[in-house]
């Protein structure tokens, strides 16, 4: 199978680069029997899922609603992983307001999705990050939402194992059947927008330890992609392996750029451009997911039916969410 990615040149010219990587197919998406329940009953625990593997989504900002992009991210994960235990943790403390939100209702009605309030003290408990969360260092952190998400990924995966996924990632197919993985976003950087690890992984233990000892409350990404890159680079060196795609360091498979990050953050605005739809669909044809890069596009919108790459991503991977934005006349 082939991956293609491009670099934008002047005008509509696109430079195509070919990659190779194996990819897996998709599976059925099931809407749960609790779809017609109302009120707090929509927030019941998952049921009828056999041998579930954890998939974690984190809403750490405290807002009491989901965007259509976040809804699509969660729905697309459920679409291709109906036997996984998908858990959305939210920091909002107003349950009544959450239950009125259309997209919270959408994801809570999916059979294998659990929607849970976030107790930071409990989630960080028995990890090195418990003291950080209670410290002055946290209070002076500029990017609190992002750093909380990074820290919680390491803590939850270390405690329970599974996959942690950022809510600006649209899943396109069944994720790799590997015990642990992360992906390069460039030839020199591993991103943590999606990361899988086993319970008790020493990789996660080191991430949390260095989260504390190397903490920088100012630099965006320093405790996320920058941290996992530093950890993997040194682990590969210790194990006499190359820090490169295709190698396994610390027991974690390092996948090549096209697996998860076929669209570079510098080119993410093109995801909203109907003029490059066919080119981008070819580019991410064998990618497991498309990372939208919220930090770059913010809440940029598109019109359902405009045939943009984003429009196709929604139609193909999160049809229930798409049906809502068709009614609203706009998505993001």
Would you spell out the secondary-structure blueprint of this structure?
Elements: E1 2-8, E2 14-20, E3 54-59, H1 68-80, E4 85-90, H2 95-99, H3 102-108, E5 113-117, H4 120-124, H5 129-133, H6 136-139, H7 144-160, E6 162-165, E7 169-171, E8 181-184, E9 190-197, H8 202-213, H9 225-238, E10 248-249, E11 252-255, H10 257-260, H11 277-283, E12 289-291, H12 294-297, H13 309-317, H14 319-328
Parallel strand pairs: 3-4, 3-6, 4-5, 8-11
Antiparallel strand pairs: 1-2, 6-9, 7-12, 8-9, 10-11
General description of the model:
By secondary structure, the chain is an alpha/beta fold. The chain is 35% helix and 18% strand. The chain is built from 14 helices and twelve strands. The strands form three sheets. It has an eight-stranded mixed β-sheet with strand order 5-4-3-6-9-8-11-10, sandwiched between helices. A two-stranded antiparallel ribbon has the order 1-2. Helix 1 (68-80) packs parallel to helix 3, helix 1 packs antiparallel against helix 14 and helix 13 (309-317) packs across helix 14 (319-328). Mean pLDDT is 86; it is low at 1-51.
Give the quaternary arrangement of the chains: single chain
Strand content: 15-25%
Number of helices: 14
Mass-distribution shape: globular
| Record field, number of beta strands | 12
